[in-house]
Amino acid sequence: MKTVMFIGYGSMARKVHEMLPKNVILSTVLASARSASRLKAEIGDAVNVITSVDDLVEVPDIAIEMAGQEGVKEHGLKILKKGIPLWIVSVGAFTDEKLAIALHDAAKAHGVKIHILAGAVAGIDGINAASLAGLDKVIDQGRKSPSGWQGSHADELIDYDSLDKATVFFTGSARDAATLFPENSNVAATIALAGVGLDDTQVELVVDPALEHNIHRIMAEGTFGKLEISITGLPLAENPRTSSLAAFSALRLCHQLDQALQI
Fold first, then answer.
1. Which of the residues 75, 153, 213, 216 is marked catalytic?
2. Which of 38, 41, 71, 186 is the most buried (most CB within 10 A)?
């Protein structure tokens, strides 16, 4: 039997909790002070709800971050220093170079691993494998409808009133994209870390008035050949802002904790 701690308990964590395999038990939820009382009432006494890593009663086998980049920044180092392996969904936190180095050093010093979850995209294993032989180009293209971009930095780059076809409105490095579009940084950072890095991964952002759902395309070329993957992402029914595939990427590893055969 394995025990896990969730960092955060939003719609993604609720879905993972609901579908945990029988041999994995949620022992602890690390929550914000403002939500702790509500979550204690919701989850019940079987799960320990805490607001600081220092309050841990039982050290879990794994900690799974599903709280956003601030959750990584606030709790990541303390978790690793407790000797707890850390799985991270909010990979955009690694665009903060000082934080990324500190997390890496803490994991190494305390003999534990950080696992970057694939999240809302697929093909990360292929990109990472191809990088061992050499990658010449990796492009991450994000396509959304106008409403999907409104309220972001895209408002300064797109003339929504005259838009009548799919238009690329941003091209730059994954690092630049993460700075200007932090809500897109998890996917870009994941692809970059798997492949050629934040500064050499190219990001294209597209606004498409014909779209109903967000589409992500990954294109890579190198010694291995060419790879192209397209994902039409559907959100969790419980929260339209949360990718269902991101939740299932965390759940997949929970299922693999005790599996002799892993894919």
1. 216
2. 186
